Amino acid sequence: MPPDVPSDIQLQPQNSSEVALTAAQPPRETTFREYLESLLVTILIVLYGTTFIVQTFKIPSPSMERTLLVGDYLLVNKFIFEGRGAWYEHFLPYRAIRRGDIIVFKFPFDDHPHYVKRVIGLPGDRVRIVDAKVYVNGALLNEPYVIHDPGAADLFGNDFPPTGNTFYDGRLRPEWAADIQNHVVAGELVVPPDDYFAMGDNRDYSWDCRYWGFVRRDAIMGRPVIVYWSVEATSGDYASDDFISSLHSMARTLLHLPSRARWSRMFRQVH
Questions:
Q1: Residues with catalytic annotation?
Q2: Which run of H or of E encompasses 28?
Q3: What are 233-259's pLDDT values in tens digits?
Q4: Domain for residue 1, yes or no?
Q5: Could you give the CA distance from residue 183 to residue 80 in angstroms, rounded to a whole number?
Q6: How far apart are the two ends of the chain, measured CA to CA in Å?
Q7: How many domains are contained in the chain?
Q8: pLDDT tens for residues 159-204?
Q9: Residue 77 maps to which CATH number?
């Protein structure tokens, strides 16, 4: 600013040939209406983002270990999978669900809680487990992410699908027990159209499609992309959904935050 121009004066160009000196106006106070409008716009943006783009979830069980640990907090991309038949899928960067994708979906029974598993079988695939090894369409599936516990008593960990009526067990949903044989052909489970077969990476401690049936396409919400926060926790910390229990769990986490936080897992990509 030229030295002969007072400090309370700002330069405001008028046209290409001249500059006028205008006294700076004092800042106008923001009105309550403007605060309210800003708040409403922020709420709308957040609601749009959590409805169509991303959503946060926490991991309450060990069924996806070592990929996802109890106490991991995830950002889930809801703006990724095609297949719902919407017209805008042709214009946006959606892609098909692939074998090996980790998905978040609504459980088909009860109060439809959200589950996270890995896609093993696509529509039309033939799935079979022999000696704890997974075969899809007759080929052995490479699963470097899977862990096994030789001492676990997993009903369908070594051989699946079951034959005959000798497989009824307390872990099996009765709806699936009555329907599973309708999808078995020559000892293989055939995945129906618009359905997916998913299992947990912690194969012997995962209650998954082997025990309750297929995942419908319209139940799939998205794919976890990043662990944005992680704390040392057990399934018992998330056993109850009531407000008081959640408050106690939060208080314990905050009290022991430095020691319980898994700093090395922050912002880790999920594969």
A1: 63, 117
A2: none
A3: 888 777 666 656 556 666 666 666 778
A4: no
A5: 29
A6: 55
A7: 1
A8: 999 877 656 667 789 999 999 999 999 999 999 999 999 999 999 9
A9: 2.10.109.10
